[in-house]
């Protein structure tokens, strides 16, 4: 059984029937056109499967699999949008999905690294930040800063920190935040949050699909 | 009201648009005159909302933008708009806009009716969409209800709030969803009953809905925070796919069964 999380920039897969079913990644632009999977999530998922789990449900179920604490906030930062689930006493307490004002955050961060030829592993978390609620609109801050003499690297770092702060506030400003998505591998982004961050990586939604397959589709794993 | 009897000029078959819930006496009068009532709060013309941009800001209550859009396209003889505590200040200001925009009487009312009609539809087993259609249609009539036709069911979910501009989001809920908030006041014919509006059922997962840019967003968010399994939701003109997914995920993760999902 093939599970897939169809993201805007990257798609995540896991084949359940393989004995060592490590999840793997394919860039969305490289997906085979005739691809079909058995269970899908992600905003492109309905195109590739007859069985679909919506992203918030997959995120929540993935969190239930990976997080032992009864109270937590789990935030997924994707290319296109951000979403979170909040649990109290092991039960869903709140959730949010921001696909407009939080739009294009992950995609913009990746785009800027390539355009300015930067390496986020080497950039320090800046003291200052930009007030940013949207990746696209926030880019004008970078252009203005560079025009005023600030280095491109510093300007982009302030932008990334602004995006992290916006995501932090969107998820309710918790003391500890569990982070999901490809940005878990970006030390500048992770270090920009003003709270304790526990990274869970890119495959949280795939983990949620596994739980759905096991508990709701009665598939033995 | 500017005239002593603003309805004297109405002929049978006159077309009267209403905004909000005018007092029962007014609705009864319109019924007795044989007027055709058009609920301007609901989408009635298939035209781009941008047409209202010269008259209202784009960032404004989608229900009132819809009322203006309807008023621009329906050939009405009169508009009756409720601007009292059962509606909102936005409606008061929109009444000024409508009066300036149109060459017909725009009658302002203040509905403070306090005789409860009951709210059987809010608690009966029926698709949520159908319940809302019937409740909103009920605004045009002053006839008493027949509650025995709509026995109450045990609720599995709750919908608190106003009738949404986009009814499609209602299809995401199970038939056993009970309705609370201003829609309940609407069916009860007491739109200014704040105490009734604030009631919710803490035993069932509940969506607290308000139109974006509506003053009721504050009450919806406040009550959602008080509810042990409540989710605040605001939607502008149409319900986006991410908003639909949010409702579906909330109900599913709260253990609410819905066969159509």
Walk me through the structure.
The complex is a heterodimer of chains A (221) and B (261). By secondary structure, chain A is of the alpha/beta class. Helices cover 33% and strands 23% of the residues of chain A. Chain A has six helices and nine strands. Chain B folds into two domains: 15-109, Rossmann fold, CATH 3.40.50; 120-253, no CATH class. Chain B has a four-stranded parallel β-sheet with strand order 2-1-3-4, covered by helices on one side. The N and C termini of chain B lie far apart (49 Å). Classes of the chains: A alpha/beta (221), B alpha/beta (261). Chain A binds chain B through residues 43, 54-57, 60, 81, 85, 91-97, 99-100, and chain B through 229, 231, 240-243, 245-246, 248-250, 252-254.
SSE topology:
The complex is a heterodimer of chains A (221) and B (261).
Chain A lengths: L1 E5 L3 E6 L8 E4 L11 E3 L13 H12 L5 E6 L4 E7 L2 E8 L6 H11 L19 H13 L4 H19 L5 E5 L6 H5 L4 E6 L2 H12 L6
Helix pairs in contact in A: 1-6, 3-4
Chain B lengths: L14 E5 L4 H10 L2 E4 L22 H12 L4 E5 L6 H13 L4 E4 L10 H4 L4 H10 L19 E5 L15 E4 L1 H6 L6 H4 L8 E6 L4 H11 L3 E6 L5 H13 L8
Parallel strand pairs in B: 1-2, 1-3, 3-4, 5-6, 5-7, 7-8
Helix pairs in contact in B: 2-3
Strand content of chain A: 15-25%
Tell me the span between the first and last alpha carbons of chain A: 10 Å
The arrangement of helices and strands of chain A along the chain is EEEEHEEEHHHEHEH
Order of strands, main sheet of chain A, comes to 7-6-5-8-9
| Helical content of chain B (DSSP H or I, runs of 4+) | 25-40%
CA(first)-CA(last) distance of chain B? 49 Å
Count of domain modules of chain B: 2
Query: What is the assigned CATH homologous superfamily of the largest domain in chain A?
Result: ATPase, nucleotide binding domain
Contiguous runs where pLDDT drops below 50 for at least 5 residues of chain B: none
What is the second-level CATH architecture of the largest domain in chain A? 2-Layer Sandwich
